[in-house]
Amino acid sequence: MTGHEVSEVLPEEERLRRWRLVLGGDRGAEGTGVSLSGRDLAMDKALAALYGGRDGGGQPRGGRRQGGLGGSAPDVARWLGDIRTYFPTSVVQVMQRDAIERLGLSALLLEPEMLEAVEADVHLVGTLLSLNKAMPETTKETARAVVRKVVEELEKKLAAKTRQTVTGALDRSARVSRPRYQNIDWNRTIAANLKNYLPEYRTVVPEKLIGYGRAARGVKKDVVLCIDQSGSMAASVVYASVFGAVLASMRSLDTRLVVFDTSVVDLTDQLDDPVDVLFGTRLGGGTDINRALAYCQSKISRPSETVVVLISDLYEGGIKDEMLKRVAAMKAAGVQFVTLLALSDEGAPAYDHEHAAALAALGAPAFACTPDLFPEIMAAAIEKRPLPVPDPETSPSGQGPR
User: Is 143 in contact with 255 (CB distance < 8 Å)?
Assistant: First the structure.
């Protein structure tokens, strides 16, 4: 073992114990010869209820893995309490997600006592939003409390950086003609004075200086967030709603938030509370990006001062050619157009590669964006500089920043 290699050397008994917990099963657990008791046995039962269901020979019953929660509220409530006792929060959230997906427990989330027992995260919020229309009145208050808890945690994490980054971009985008030396934008200054180039001195005479200034209160940028609310975009909808509320709180920005499936809903008047925005969405259904962009385009009055952020996996159910024409028209008018395949921590989702490539050809490369990177994306769009695409492999155009 070298100085750079650090590994945990376990006693044989502990190594076999861990394998027993991994493998599950009864009477020796796949040959480990280890029997569990106490806390270990309780952990094993909690795991087996979700991932187990093996017969006496160690084979999955019925040829596939099965869970054993039974779908009853008391059993599920007890199981939720057990996993919170034995596992860290990050593991609990994964197990909850697996239980909802594998065992069809979504209906139980319509019961207030179930919601009070779960560990809330972005994915749970997405599930609750998808159940919103079926949710009884007795559950809605509890559901809103769960969603608000997650939203407030996200705001604490994301708001300060977003305001700081975007405010700096607004200040830099406000050009002044008599800047201080340290505030001179040399690239723009040189470009504006190329006509004053003196060959004999091999220099440019800076007749006109262009620099950065502090954005005045009356200098605003318009931001339009256009969010696909199809079921696969649940996490993106949650994050976009939080960012929309943060941006709307900045006086230098005029922020609009639009969600769409086959219809379009403008939720701008609810941006003071992202929880209201989230419960105004309707996850699931079809997708008509062209119709949504047509609505957004109709609301643009200052194209050269507008940033449009489309958040979608680009599976278009509307008219593809019209969608692309609208994007081209907005860009030609001076709109800064950003396409995000996802706004989440989960990486690039499944998306329509053909549409993504077509947008890239228009100068609007599509890529997945993490919440931590979103403020930088907005800053670059406001300053009209190349977008900090996180990785060429996540950009369907196969290119980096343009």
Answer: no
Angle of CA points 372, 274, 376, to nearest 5°: 25
Number of C-beta neighbours around residue 354 at 10 A: 12
- Considering only residues 135 and 305, tell me which one the structure prediction assigns the higher pLDDT: 305
Tokens representing 145?
Answer: 């409390």
Torsion angles phi and psi, residue 377, rounded to 5: -60, -45
C-beta pairs of 136-145 under 8 Å, 24+ apart in sequence: 136/110, 138/112, 139/110, 139/111, 139/112, 139/115, 141/112, 142/112, 142/115, 142/116, 143/115, 144/275, 144/279
Asked whether 260 and 225 are in contact (CB, 8 A), the reply is: no
How does DSSP classify residue 259? E
Per-residue DSSP letters for 34-67?
----HHHHHHHHHHHHHH--B-TTSSBGGGS---
- What does residue 367 show for φ and ψ, rounded to 5 degrees? -160, 160
Of 121, 116, 118, 117, the closest CA to residue 154 belongs to 121
CA separation for the pair 357, 46 (Å, rounded): 46
pTM, to two decimals: 0.69
Confidence of residue 136 (pLDDT cuts 50, 70, 90): confident
313 Cβ contact list (under 8 Å, min separation 6): 228, 230, 232, 233, 341, 342, 349, 350, 351, 352
- Alpha carbons 61 and 144: distance in angstroms, whole number: 39
Contact of 257 with 268, CB cutoff 8 Å = yes
352's tokens:
């329509």
DSSP of 135-198, one letter per residue?
Answer: --HHHHHHHHHHHHHHHHHHHHHHHHHHHHHHHHHHHHHSEESS--GGGB-HHHHHHHTGGGEE
318: left (phi > 0), else alpha (psi -120 to 50), else beta? Answer: beta
> Tokens 């608000």 identify what position?
148
Q: Region 127-155: what's the mean pLDDT?
A: 86
Would you say 131 and 110 are in contact if contact means Cβ atoms under 8 Å apart?
yes
Vertex 189 angle, CA 251 and 221, to 5°:
15
